[in-house]
Design brief:
By secondary structure, the protein is mainly α. Among the domains are: 66 residues, no CATH class; 60 residues, Orthogonal Bundle (Helix Hairpins), CATH 1.10.287.110. It is 39% helix and 4% strand. Strand 1 and strand 2 form a beta hairpin.
Length: 205
């Protein structure tokens, strides 16, 4: 292979251009100074990301008198410092439920300092166990539960005390000993017992 072929001359690359001389560093921006400005100094408030270029002596002089809060009142400075805690982002009060906000701390409940239970949503009825229906009135009854209430002649929103009282009344009324062995009364007696047991198992009484 001939290295002096005309084909090699066509594909031979040109010489790289000599690198241009490096630009001279900027001069100090301090009035009357012609030294190299190799040290950055912040311009000030509302000019974030912008810097002056000073020499070492003048950047020290500039930093001594630099004050980011220059021109602000004491109230504005305090507000800025308060907002800086959250990175100047908007914040909201923790929780949106006023009742939950006024509720006691867990430590207060454990220590016994707070004994009254708050029930903003009505999950726990005041007045102790058995003072009212366990389920809200809007609860949809199943077919067997509805039939049990009908058997006992009660409404679906009857309280636990009303169910028990009605059960005792019907048992006395339809007991075989009280009706001389009447077969109709005996069937009614069994139906009342089954209805009461169903309601009891489902937590109505």
């Amino acid at each position: 292979m001939r290295l002096d072929s005309k084909y090699f001359d066509r594909i031979r690359t040109r010489r790289k251009r000599e690198q241009e001389a490096e630009q001279a560093p900027p001069t100090c921006q301090w009035d009357g100074c012609d030294k190299k400005g190799s040290h950055r100094a912040p311009v000030g408030r509302n000019a974030e990301g912008q810097f002056f270029l000073f020499c070492f002596e003048h950047v020290k002089e500039y930093n001594k008198g630099y004050n980011y809060f220059s021109g602000l009142s004491d109230g504005e400075i305090a507000r800025y410092q308060k907002e800086a805690i959250t990175g100047h982002r908007p914040t909201w009060t923790v929780g949106v439920n006023k009742s939950a906000k006024d509720s006691p701390l867990h430590s207060e409940v454990r220590s016994g300092a707070y004994t009254r239970v708050r029930d903003p949503f009505g999950f726990v009825k005041e007045g102790g166990k058995g003072s009212g229906p366990r389920f809200p009135q809007a609860r949809k009854l199943k077919s067997l539960e509805s039939k049990a209430f009908d058997t006992m002649g009660l409404h679906a929103n009857a309280t636990s005390a009303e169910i028990k009282s009605r059960y005792k009344e019907l048992v006395k009324k339809h007991h075989p000993d009280a009706n001389g062995g009447d077969r109709g009364s005996e069937e009614r007696f069994r139906a009342v017992i089954q209805a009461y047991q169903l309601l009891k198992q489902n937590g109505f009484c």
